[in-house]
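#help-structures

NK: newbie question. if I give both the sequence and a SMILES, will the prediction place the ligand too? trying with guanosine-5'-triphosphate
OV: yes, paste both and it writes out the complex. here, I ran yours:
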Amino acid sequence: MKHADRSMGRVRIAVLGKFNVGKSALTVRYLTRRFIGEYRSNEDLLYRQAVVVSGSLTDVEIYDVSGETRDTMTVEEAAHLAADGAVVVYSIVDRSSFEYARRLLGLLGAAPGLHVTLLANKADLAHLREVPESEGRALAEAAGSPFYEVSSAEDSAGLYQAFELLVAECHAQLSSNNNHNAANNNNNAVVVSGDRQQQGQQQGQGGQVPPRTRKFSVTKMLGTLIGAAKSSSPPPAGSTAAPAASLQGTVVVCHKSELFRRGVLRSRRHKTSITASL
Ligand SMILES: Nc1nc2c(ncn2[C@@H]2O[C@H](COP(=O)(O)OP(=O)(O)OP(=O)(O)O)[C@@H](O)[C@H]2O)c(=O)[nH]1
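OV: that's the protein plus ligand as structure tokens.
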């Protein structure tokens, strides 16, 4: 397996949507191939893990935005995410979450270079459905985004495909930006690579901002699961998914002030400065 692409930087994905739609469950399912239905977390979580993209190990950060904390980002702030990609989630049994997703897609559409995927979750609850699949598909088409109806409670191949396609697209974009910057050798490119190199060194020394892990429950449990995923079973039949993780992952609790400090939240006015923050 190639490791070269890991020097390129992290792919950053934000998972957004109304509360209770299953953002955490989806993220955990993708990273661990497991469904954890019984925990409640009202904090924003940042998952860091190496995943396989096109045969190469790539560092991925998935920012799981809690819909319940008073401290959480607003829908407007989501449009200012310095992420490479966003997964917008709604629940097929909650019409209001679909409207929330519509609003999010509208805002994210204004963010240049952001890859966005629309996920309709809780497909296993079809008997309680409030949003027809055709409506979700039409919304995604209008936004120019891929669309998948999935269930994080079940082993949906579409869920893995959705994340993998998004990560692969973001990865390709980062590679292309890096090549472009290297070719032009302009001042911004120097700043970008300098920032990245510095970031890498700081992370190698334990990180500029030490991860704040929770003393109990979700973070510790997920950290254990993500770590355990490297030895977990292969993806389910029908999934094109590679094994969830090849290296140990971490989970970090985030608060808004920390997000600004980390550069997860910032203006997207200049594409090069966004890239520099990753
Ligand atoms: N039946 C079913 N339940 C699900 C599915 N995904 C999540 N849930 C349940 O929905 C509830 C909310 O899931 P979470 O993953 O906490 O949702 P969230 O969007 O992260 O919620 P907030 O942190 O409040 O924003 C939990 O009780 C999950 O067990 C699914 O695909 N099917």
